[in-house]
UniProtKB/TrEMBL annotation:
Needed cofactors: [4Fe-4S] cluster
Record-given protein name: Transcriptional regulator WhiB
Organism: Catenulispora acidiphila (strain DSM 44928 / JCM 14897 / NBRC 102108 / NRRL B-24433 / ID139908)
Region annotation (Disordered) ranges: 86-114
GO molecular function: 4 iron, 4 sulfur cluster binding; dinitrosyl-iron complex binding; DNA binding; metal ion binding; protein-disulfide reductase [NAD(P)H] activity
């Protein structure tokens, strides 16, 4: 391989070898059908605790965003959180944040010109 072609697939997954969840039960990270309320919150809390100490948390979160993962906790993020991140413009602020900021600016009285 001359280095100009695509990287081998294995290099895209190497970070997983160092993941704290590697030997954990995957049920901690993926909700069963119909799971709601306290059960879901508790399972997500336990999953995030493991993510919080994971040496590859950022790589995991980036990977889930890059492939559009729709299920489970990845890098300490839920699918809903990842969807919200994908909807944010590149500047990092959501459209709602920008609209709220514009509303605050409009409410601030402007100094009168002398």
């Amino acid at each position: 391989m001359n280095g100009s072609g695509p990287r081998p697939i294995a290099t895209l997954w190497e970070w997983q070898e160092s993941a704290a969840c590697r030997s954990a039960d995957s049920a901690r990270f993926f909700s069963p059908t119909g799971e709601r309320g306290f059960a879901r919150s508790e399972r997500e809390r336990l999953a995030r605790e493991l993510c919080d100490v994971c040496p590859v948390r950022e790589e995991c979160a980036r990977f889930a965003l890059a492939i559009g993962e729709e299920h489970g906790i990845w890098g300490g993020t839920t699918s809903q959180e990842r969807i919200a991140q994908l909807r944010r413009p590149r500047g990092g602020r959501s459209r709602a944040d920008i609209a709220a900021a514009r509303g605050r600016e409009a409410a601030v009285p402007q100094a009168e010109a002398a």
